[in-house]
Amino acid sequence: xxxxxxxxxxxxxxxxxxxxxxxxxxxxxxxxxxxxxLSRLRADGHLWWMTTCLAGLLLGLWGIYVTxxxxxxxxxxxxxxxxxxxxxx
Length: 89
Hints:
Layout: H1 16-36, H2 38-44, H3 48-76
């Protein structure tokens, strides 16, 4: 007998801009920490960590731009109904 599927949980009401901003700040902090230890990273062969932090920072900045644009569009009512989330506080 097939198991019954539980209903999907309600979406969380989160501020996506804040979440992406915090993540971007963490990447920036990791980049600064890596710059402070650059010679040690180079000696241990972990210089690629700096590239990873830089990529996280740049993608985070792009994410902030995208989520801010989406928030403005949601407030103006320009996003199709199937893509809308609950209003942000």
